[in-house]
Each structure stands twice: as structure tokens, then as C-alpha cells.
């Protein structure tokens, strides 16, 4: 498939989603107003969510009819606040010291470009991640990952510096999966140091908050990745609130690197979420790469239900499907169930996330098999 036609097709898919979402909202606006007026006449304090007028309305009806034995949703905190624990141990003092040093460095860099505004101080965040994977075919693999951002308000409050593993920014917002689209590296090594170094060596200047009449969020990056791959990257995203507690989130990403060449990705999520209830979501991604030697076009889809039993926690379960796209025809190469859990561990800034799945892989002639993933993540901010 030629890149030009693919680009048009994927951007067409993206903005068709925009149009469909807006059309859905406008189509039911009259009915929504009528329904709410009728509801108001009988019970003024109750707001009834009108239907979307589409097949999506079957989803909440099905959810309502299904029994559940799981606990109710909760935002109760199970770990003490950072301010309370920052002097409790060597780990706490180190985390607090490093977080403060990070903010001081952000302020120092911000001062280079002009007079800082006390009401809009510079800030920085840093994610440190260690992903561990296991399955019976590939055995164990460990990948440390880093992603940081420094916000510089003196540069018209639009520019920031981003560094580390840029593939983390390609994942859809609130991604349910523990993913890593970077090459695995040497399969004979549990930890491939050279591959880890390449994956985490991205550095870029990001321009955000473009003004536009469509309320579309934009990020434009210019930087270097994998050591010497100079690249430019554009990401646009938009949200819509539909009726009947449905919402849509869409992202389009295009990156061109002098070495890596073309990278194009579409992320789309449709979610049904009622207040104080578990939500149902479908996350779809389409990814195309072309380095002038090989072209790859792949799709991934995850349909899942997610619960929150306490603050910063999730428990989810669902079905994954995915495969290659050849000659405009998607192939089902891999599918199976998964179950995941994430929670803060002992501190607000430390997280543990697990996933167990049962997938096959027709491309590699692998039958369904158990896979396990573990993510340890800490934040400095």
C-alpha cells in the first residue's frame, strides 16, 4: 500500500469519526431537549440521559441486566499522602529530594528564556518504568523505560522539553494494555542494554496548545531519537461527549524520521461510563510504518470492562484481537482474553500493574498460551 493513499485513508477514518460523533450529538439534540423537558415536568431534580439513537444503546441495557458480585466503585485512598511520608525512610527522602531537584532544574531552564512569572512557574515530571514480560515461547524480558517533560512558561506557555521513550506518547490515553512497540532486542538476553539505551534516548522540543476553531488538542515535536534519528512529529486529538453516557476519544499521530522514515498511528476509543459505576470501553489502534525497506500495517483492538475499588486503582478484563492488514484486508492473527490490575503500592508515587493473558499468534505459528506482564512505575513531580 502506498503511503499517500494510506495517509489519506487513515486521516479520513480519523475525521470521519469526528463527523460521526458530532452528527450523533446533533441528531439527538432535539430528542434530548424534549426528553429532558418531559422529565423536568415530572421530576425537576432528575436529569435523564437521552439515547444516542444508534445500536450503542443496547450496551447500557445489557449492562443493567447483567448481575455483578464485585465491590462498588470507590475513590478511597489506601496509601498516605506524600507530604506525610516524605521523611519516613531513606526511599521517601530520596524521592522527595529528587523531585525537588527536578523542579529546581525546570525553574533554572525556564529562567534562560526570560523573566519567569510567579503565577505560572515552570514544572517537570518524570516517569520511571520497569516492564517485565514472560511467556513460554520468549521466556523473560525486562525493559526499563523513562519519560519526562519540562514545562517552560516563559516560552509563550506553549513550549516544553520532552525526553526518554517517545513510544509511550504513542499509546492511547488511559491505555489498558502494557505495551511496548519498540524492538525487543537480543532474544538471548533478558535485559538488552543497547536496546534500552536506544529506546530511551529521545529528546525533543514540543509545541502545544495551538489555537484552532475545532477545539482539537495538538502537539508538534522536533527532536532526535535512537541516538541520531532526527524527526518531526505531529499529534492531534479530540474528545466528544455523546448521549446516554457515551464518549469518544480520537488521536492521530504522524512522525517522520531521517532514519526511521514514516510512522502513522490512529487511536480511537468509545466509552460508556456512568458516574460512580464501572465503565465499558473499546480501544482501537491502527499503526503503519515504512522505513523504505519494509512496510507494516497492523491493527489492535481491546474491548473491556474496568472497575475502580479505590483511588488510582483499576481492575479490568476483556478480549484482545489484532493482526496485520494486507491489501486493505485486516487479518485476525491473534486473539484471546486478558485480565489486569493496577494500584498504588505503599506510596502515592509508586505503582504496580499486572496483566495475565491467553493469546495465540498465527504469524509465528504459536497456539494459545499464557502470558504474564508486570510493570513497576514511579513518578517524580
From TrEMBL:
Q: Signal among the record's keywords?
A: yes
Q: Which key words tag this protein in UniProt?
A: Signal
Where does the record place the region Disordered?
Answer: 176-195
What is the protein name given in its UniProt record?
Answer: Selenocysteine synthase
| Domain of life per record | Bacteria
Q: Where is the signal peptide?
A: 1-21
